[in-house]
Amino acid sequence: MPATLRSLLHRGELHLRPLTDAGEHALDAPLSWLHSSDLEDPTPFLAEGQGLLTTGTQFGAEAEVLDEVAEAYVRRLVDGGVVALGFGTEVVRAGTPDALVAACTRHGLPLFEVPYETSFIAVAQANAEAVARDANARGAWALAAQRAISLAAMRPDGLGATIAELSRQLDGWVGLFDVSGRLDRGHPADGLPAADLDLLRTEALRLLRSGQRASLPVATQRGVGYTLQTLGSGGHLSGVLAIAKGGALDRAGREVVTAVIALAGLALQQNRELARARGLLRTGLLTMLSVGEPEVVQATSREVWGPLPAEPVRIAAVDVPDHDLDTVVDLLELWVQDRPGHLFFAVDDALFLCVNADDTGIVAELVDRFDLRAGLSDGTAYRSFGRARTEAVQALDRRREGRPGTTEFGDLAREGVLAHLAHVDVDAGAVARAFLAPLLDHDRTAGTELTGTVRTWLQENCEYDRAARVLGIHRHTARARVEHAGRLLDRDLSVFSTRADLWAAFVVEGA
């Protein structure tokens, strides 16, 4: 146990006598050292947490010590962090001054009397022995704790066992927040109130976003204190260790926590190496999807991560800066675990996400969190994954011209073909196919001839009589088909710019 005034008073051979009732907390406060001084203001030579022995020479030769003198003296000691005062009697004064006892009582400073037959050096030595015993005991505890933690790290769930062992050694709650700010594991499982969890998650995210190694003390409204410590190297943090603390950790406690930080960092580094291997596999599967082999990818993904998102799917191409890529990938790995069957991703010439067509919130969440630019394809089946990937890249290229956010390929198609001819990096053919898709799909499924009718109508200078003669149909039929095409395209075909866009699409696509 640490050296305290209580342990010192229990040393019967010293014959010390307490003169004030300072309370349990004051008696059990650590007493790191004892000095002796009769200076009027000894505080410049004392450190917080230490005790003082005095014979009272500073109070002068008067029989009674004035209340204001004793008050000022005790206030200086308390402000300086002194935790105990011992008064040696029969050296300068017979007994302890009543004014000093009253001042110590008012300020809650423990005061004890040292009889003439007990030397100050004996009192100081007794305290020093207690300090040394406690230091040795804490050192032995630190070694034993580090040994137990090292053994825990060798268990199948080494990281979880390490966290649990640290919790037992510190006799308090310990938790690990992952890169998304989620509490990955904590011990004991029910040892963290919901309100504290919200606060710690917020502060952990703030540390992670800074990207720098740091330690942060956090105090809750209930007065409970925590220490947050980042894990990983600067620029690539891999989590935050949270420790509930009843008080400041001593040197032995800090050594144990440092050992856990090193072991946790090693475990997370190993996970990162495994993630790199998984990343190479993901890239290979992305290539297979792009060339039209979804069955093999589906089987592989189901064994490693879970099933692919259900068709129809949309592909997002995301532009991620190099310095954020590892953090983004770590987060996506967690999302895949948390949302099986909702996300597949891989890194190639960009970061590609595959999500269900009705579940694009994942893309928006990622873009918002890291302030990224993304392009999103139209919905498609896996057999057309390659085309959707191209659409996503086209949309991303357009988004790169503006602020962070997401551009959908469907928006490009609605802008028309001519709007993209000035962009040499945009595949006008892909835009044209998307523009004409409503007509082509309707003709294919309904057996109609809207596409040919509209093309002929444009070729004949948008005159219904001439188009009808070329097609061999009634002019009212030609008009009805063109109007139907306009509704499918959601465009007003009486407007010149729309007709020009439509003709450009026919020319580019060769439809």
Structure write-up:
There is one protein chain. The protein has 511 residues and is α/β, with parallel strands linked by helices. It contains 18 helices and 15 strands. It has a five-stranded mixed sheet. Strands 7-6-10-9-8 form a five-stranded antiparallel sheet, sandwiched between helices. Helix 8 runs antiparallel to helix 9, helix 13 packs across helix 14 (428-446) and helix 16 (464-471) crosses helix 17 (475-489). The longest helix is centred in the middle third of the chain and has 40 residues, at 251-290. The chain is elongated, with a radius of gyration of 38 Å.
Overall, the morphology is: elongated
Sheet of most strands: 5 strands, mixed
Unreliable spans: none
- The main sheet orders its strands as 1-5-4-3-2
End-to-end gap: 88 Å
Quaternary state of the chains: single chain
Structural class: alpha/beta
List the total number of helices.
18
What is the mean predicted local confidence, pLDDT? Answer: 82
Name the beta content range: 15-25%
Number of strands: 15
- Bin the helical content: 40-55%
Write a brief structural summary.
It is built from 18 helices and 15 strands. The protein has helices spanning 5-9, 24-27, 67-79, 98-107, 120-153, 158-170, 194-210, 251-290, 294-304, 322-338, 361-370, 385-399, 409-415, 428-446, 450-459, 464-471, 475-489, 496-509; strands at residues 17-18, 34-36, 51-54, 84-88, 111-114, 174-177, 183-187, 215-219, 225-233, 236-245, 313-319, 343-347, 351-356, 373-376, 405-408.
